[in-house]
Amino acid sequence: MLDLKHDIIRGMGAVLNEAERRRAAGLKLGRDRRRFIACRGQLRRILAARLGISPSDVELEYGRLGKPRLSHRMPSRDLRFSVSRSGDVAVIALSTGREVGVDIEAVLPVPEADEIAALCFSASDYESYAALGPDNRLEGFFRRWTRLEAISKGQGCGLGHPGSSDDEDWVVRSFVPQTGYLGCVVVRK
Hints:
This protein is an alpha+beta fold. 40% of the residues lie in helices and 23% in strands. It contains six helices and seven strands, in the order αααβββββαααββ.
Protein backbone atom coordinates (compact mmCIF):
# COMPACT_ATOMS: atom_id res chain seq x y z
CA MET A 1 0.00 0.00 0.00
CA LEU A 2 1.38 3.38 -1.00
CA ASP A 3 -0.83 5.82 0.88
CA LEU A 4 1.25 5.91 4.06
CA LYS A 5 1.61 8.38 6.91
CA HIS A 6 3.78 11.41 6.21
CA ASP A 7 6.50 10.43 8.70
CA ILE A 8 6.89 7.03 6.97
CA ILE A 9 7.07 8.75 3.57
CA ARG A 10 9.69 11.15 4.94
CA GLY A 11 11.79 8.21 6.15
CA MET A 12 11.53 6.45 2.79
CA GLY A 13 12.44 9.68 1.00
CA ALA A 14 15.67 9.82 2.99
CA VAL A 15 16.99 6.66 1.25
CA LEU A 16 16.35 7.94 -2.29
CA ASN A 17 19.22 9.21 -4.42
CA GLU A 18 19.29 12.70 -5.90
CA ALA A 19 17.80 11.67 -9.28
CA GLU A 20 14.89 9.94 -7.52
CA ARG A 21 14.28 13.00 -5.37
CA ARG A 22 14.20 15.20 -8.48
CA ARG A 23 11.83 12.80 -10.18
CA ALA A 24 9.52 12.87 -7.15
CA ALA A 25 9.70 16.68 -6.96
CA GLY A 26 8.69 16.87 -10.63
CA LEU A 27 5.37 15.13 -9.99
CA LYS A 28 2.59 17.72 -9.85
CA LEU A 29 0.23 16.03 -7.39
CA GLY A 30 1.33 15.52 -3.79
CA ARG A 31 -0.41 12.14 -3.79
CA ASP A 32 1.64 11.01 -6.78
CA ARG A 33 4.86 12.26 -5.15
CA ARG A 34 4.10 10.34 -1.95
CA ARG A 35 3.23 7.17 -3.87
CA PHE A 36 6.42 7.37 -5.94
CA ILE A 37 8.56 7.87 -2.82
CA ALA A 38 6.81 5.00 -1.01
CA CYS A 39 7.24 2.64 -3.94
CA ARG A 40 10.88 3.52 -4.66
CA GLY A 41 11.75 3.55 -0.97
CA GLN A 42 10.23 0.11 -0.49
CA LEU A 43 12.07 -1.20 -3.57
CA ARG A 44 15.36 0.06 -2.12
CA ARG A 45 14.60 -1.56 1.25
CA ILE A 46 13.77 -4.92 -0.32
CA LEU A 47 16.84 -4.89 -2.59
CA ALA A 48 19.07 -3.77 0.28
CA ALA A 49 17.83 -6.62 2.48
CA ARG A 50 18.68 -9.11 -0.28
CA LEU A 51 22.09 -7.55 -0.87
CA GLY A 52 23.00 -7.03 2.79
CA ILE A 53 23.56 -3.28 2.38
CA SER A 54 21.85 -0.04 3.37
CA PRO A 55 18.86 1.07 1.23
CA SER A 56 20.63 4.34 0.41
CA ASP A 57 23.62 2.32 -0.93
CA VAL A 58 21.55 0.50 -3.55
CA GLU A 59 22.75 1.65 -6.97
CA LEU A 60 20.52 1.31 -10.00
CA GLU A 61 21.27 1.77 -13.66
CA TYR A 62 18.90 1.85 -16.56
CA GLY A 63 18.68 -0.08 -19.81
CA ARG A 64 18.41 1.56 -23.20
CA LEU A 65 14.64 1.90 -22.85
CA GLY A 66 14.65 2.79 -19.15
CA LYS A 67 14.27 -0.57 -17.41
CA PRO A 68 15.97 -0.30 -14.00
CA ARG A 69 18.48 -2.94 -12.87
CA LEU A 70 21.14 -3.23 -10.23
CA SER A 71 24.37 -1.41 -11.03
CA HIS A 72 27.36 -3.51 -12.02
CA ARG A 73 28.94 -2.36 -8.73
CA MET A 74 26.30 -4.14 -6.62
CA PRO A 75 27.21 -7.41 -4.85
CA SER A 76 24.64 -9.52 -6.70
CA ARG A 77 24.17 -8.66 -10.36
CA ASP A 78 22.00 -11.75 -10.93
CA LEU A 79 19.17 -10.38 -8.76
CA ARG A 80 16.48 -9.12 -11.16
CA PHE A 81 13.39 -7.12 -10.25
CA SER A 82 10.32 -5.49 -11.67
CA VAL A 83 7.95 -2.94 -10.15
CA SER A 84 4.40 -1.96 -10.94
CA ARG A 85 2.04 0.43 -9.25
CA SER A 86 -1.54 1.40 -9.86
CA GLY A 87 -3.54 3.68 -7.64
CA ASP A 88 -2.32 3.18 -4.09
CA VAL A 89 -1.06 -0.40 -4.62
CA ALA A 90 2.41 -1.48 -5.71
CA VAL A 91 4.01 -4.87 -6.27
CA ILE A 92 7.67 -5.78 -6.55
CA ALA A 93 8.78 -9.04 -8.15
CA LEU A 94 12.25 -10.51 -7.64
CA SER A 95 14.06 -13.25 -9.49
CA THR A 96 17.54 -14.68 -9.33
CA GLY A 97 19.25 -15.09 -12.68
CA ARG A 98 16.13 -14.78 -14.85
CA GLU A 99 14.37 -11.75 -16.21
CA VAL A 100 11.12 -10.91 -14.45
CA GLY A 101 8.25 -8.59 -15.25
CA VAL A 102 5.18 -7.61 -13.25
CA ASP A 103 2.15 -5.45 -13.88
CA ILE A 104 -0.91 -4.56 -11.83
CA GLU A 105 -3.91 -2.51 -12.79
CA ALA A 106 -6.93 -1.20 -10.95
CA VAL A 107 -9.95 -2.78 -12.62
CA LEU A 108 -11.88 0.28 -13.74
CA PRO A 109 -14.03 0.79 -16.82
CA VAL A 110 -12.02 1.49 -19.98
CA PRO A 111 -14.41 2.88 -22.61
CA GLU A 112 -11.87 2.31 -25.40
CA ALA A 113 -10.93 -1.24 -24.29
CA ASP A 114 -12.11 -2.81 -27.56
CA GLU A 115 -9.99 -0.40 -29.62
CA ILE A 116 -6.94 -0.92 -27.40
CA ALA A 117 -7.40 -4.68 -27.60
CA ALA A 118 -7.61 -4.55 -31.40
CA LEU A 119 -4.39 -2.53 -31.60
CA CYS A 120 -2.30 -4.21 -28.89
CA PHE A 121 -3.40 -7.80 -28.39
CA SER A 122 -2.12 -10.67 -30.49
CA ALA A 123 -4.62 -12.11 -32.97
CA SER A 124 -5.40 -15.06 -30.68
CA ASP A 125 -5.72 -12.86 -27.57
CA TYR A 126 -8.00 -10.46 -29.40
CA GLU A 127 -10.12 -13.30 -30.72
CA SER A 128 -10.56 -14.82 -27.25
CA TYR A 129 -11.23 -11.36 -25.76
CA ALA A 130 -13.84 -10.51 -28.44
CA ALA A 131 -15.62 -13.81 -27.72
CA LEU A 132 -16.20 -12.89 -24.05
CA GLY A 133 -19.65 -11.91 -22.89
CA PRO A 134 -20.32 -8.42 -21.52
CA ASP A 135 -20.04 -9.56 -17.88
CA ASN A 136 -16.54 -11.00 -18.42
CA ARG A 137 -15.13 -8.42 -20.78
CA LEU A 138 -13.61 -5.94 -18.32
CA GLU A 139 -11.75 -8.59 -16.35
CA GLY A 140 -10.81 -10.34 -19.60
CA PHE A 141 -9.31 -7.12 -20.92
CA PHE A 142 -7.19 -6.56 -17.79
CA ARG A 143 -6.01 -10.18 -17.61
CA ARG A 144 -4.66 -9.90 -21.14
CA TRP A 145 -3.38 -6.35 -20.67
CA THR A 146 -1.42 -7.12 -17.47
CA ARG A 147 0.13 -10.19 -19.14
CA LEU A 148 1.17 -8.09 -22.15
CA GLU A 149 2.62 -5.37 -19.89
CA ALA A 150 4.44 -7.86 -17.63
CA ILE A 151 6.10 -9.55 -20.61
CA SER A 152 7.08 -6.16 -22.05
CA LYS A 153 8.61 -5.19 -18.70
CA GLY A 154 10.41 -8.51 -18.47
CA GLN A 155 11.91 -7.91 -21.89
CA GLY A 156 12.78 -4.35 -20.96
CA CYS A 157 11.26 -3.06 -24.17
CA GLY A 158 7.95 -1.54 -23.11
CA LEU A 159 4.78 -1.58 -25.14
CA GLY A 160 5.14 -0.28 -28.66
CA HIS A 161 8.76 -1.42 -28.98
CA PRO A 162 9.94 -4.50 -30.85
CA GLY A 163 9.75 -7.65 -28.81
CA SER A 164 7.69 -10.75 -28.61
CA SER A 165 4.59 -10.83 -26.44
CA ASP A 166 4.53 -14.60 -26.85
CA ASP A 167 3.94 -16.56 -23.64
CA GLU A 168 6.09 -19.48 -24.74
CA ASP A 169 9.32 -17.92 -23.38
CA TRP A 170 7.77 -17.04 -20.02
CA VAL A 171 6.24 -18.65 -16.95
CA VAL A 172 3.06 -16.58 -16.55
CA ARG A 173 1.00 -16.22 -13.36
CA SER A 174 -2.02 -14.00 -12.86
CA PHE A 175 -2.88 -12.82 -9.35
CA VAL A 176 -5.14 -10.50 -7.38
CA PRO A 177 -2.96 -8.23 -5.22
CA GLN A 178 -6.02 -6.65 -3.61
CA THR A 179 -9.73 -6.53 -4.29
CA GLY A 180 -10.35 -4.38 -7.35
CA TYR A 181 -6.93 -5.03 -8.91
CA LEU A 182 -5.53 -7.64 -11.27
CA GLY A 183 -1.91 -8.47 -11.83
CA CYS A 184 0.43 -10.70 -13.75
CA VAL A 185 4.00 -11.74 -13.07
CA VAL A 186 6.26 -13.42 -15.63
CA VAL A 187 9.67 -15.05 -15.34
CA ARG A 188 11.74 -16.03 -18.36
CA LYS A 189 11.97 -19.82 -18.73
